[in-house]
């Protein structure tokens, strides 16, 4: 009976209920879009660090885990490799260069990352081969570069860098392709560490007498379960360094925490608005049909049936709105260009949709209580 009454009223007042379903759909789109934006921005900031094949990152002490401020020399690397429990250590350097499209289009900013071949920090390729020598001209590019330029293994790419006051161009060969490894919102090009040191802005142009200085070192542990113990051991045995796991390292990226907290706050307030909108609509609906509910109760309809009818109606209309909004958002995000940092993961989408499905009953709970408290005689104007 409750289901029949609920669906019957929705069907007879399609326009009115479609309006609230449309509002819920717009709220759903907004919440899912914010969730996708938050995940996309976070991923564009942390992707490389998140996917590192090492458990710990070593920074210069006093740099507040900043990859741009940190400097790690060969001496520290040698000390790290002598610490018991460390399986491998790889130097990693970061810089930003411009990738020159072969068709003469606008230059593309890329994260130019130097890694030691075969050591932690080097990404795994799905096409082509890994980096072979520390000074070769072969590079690995991520899917962000592939999407923008359409390059494949064996193609040549040109990098533009300012050395001093002069613009220099370097031609390199794509030796391998890896999955998305963005860093600082930019697609990544991975070069052998000596090649990186020669090309990067302010590099020593391959001076063999200069100490090879990277920004960080990536450490792979013999036993990943000993994470906290190894952090302490490294800081005790290697001077002037600070150690962090991957999560702590990406959370220390400038602006990361503030960005995520801002977007989370926006999501919260959007949910809150959704609760108020749905609650307000069904409260108005309740006030408009007090007489009808009074009549139904007068002829024997129980409070149980009235309450469940309202709940089914609220859940149905809300679910229709969420479904429309979710499908629309998925279609919208699927057609964004690769340069827009939008990433709607299955986990984030499912969590958000479940939360949105809960705002209907939550927002309409007041109207259900109002319906239960309606007195038939008062509703029909017969009470003194």
General description of the model:
The chain is of the alpha+beta class and 384 residues long. The chain has two domains: 2-46 and 256-379, no CATH class; 62-239, no CATH class. It is 50% helix and 18% strand. The protein has helices at 2-12, 14-50, 74-81, 143-149, 193-199, 227-237, 246-251, 256-288, 290-298, 303-334, 346-372, 376-379, and strands at residues 56-60, 86-100, 108-115, 127-128, 138-141, 156-163, 166-177, 188-192, 216-221, 241-245. A six-stranded mixed beta barrel has the order 2-3-8-5-7-6.
Estimate percent helicity.
40-55%
Note the main sheet. 6 strands, mixed, barrel
Number-wise, the strands total: 10
Which strand order do you get reading across the main beta sheet?
A: 2-3-8-5-7-6
Question: SSE order in H/E notation?
Answer: HHEHEEEEHEEEHEHEHHHHHH
Global geometry: elongated
Count of all domains: 2
Unreliably modeled segments: none
Secondary-structure topology with pairs:
Elements: H1 2-12, H2 14-50, E1 56-60, H3 74-81, E2 86-100, E3 108-115, E4 127-128, E5 138-141, H4 143-149, E6 156-163, E7 166-177, E8 188-192, H5 193-199, E9 216-221, H6 227-237, E10 241-245, H7 246-251, H8 256-288, H9 290-298, H10 303-334, H11 346-372, H12 376-379
Parallel strand pairs: 3-8, 5-7
Antiparallel strand pairs: 1-9, 1-10, 2-3, 2-6, 2-9, 4-7, 5-8, 6-7
Helix pairs in contact: 1-10, 2-8, 2-10, 2-11, 8-11, 10-11
Task: Quickly list its features.
384 residues, alpha+beta, 2 domains, six-stranded mixed β-barrel, 12 helices, 10 strands, 50% helix, 18% strand, elongated
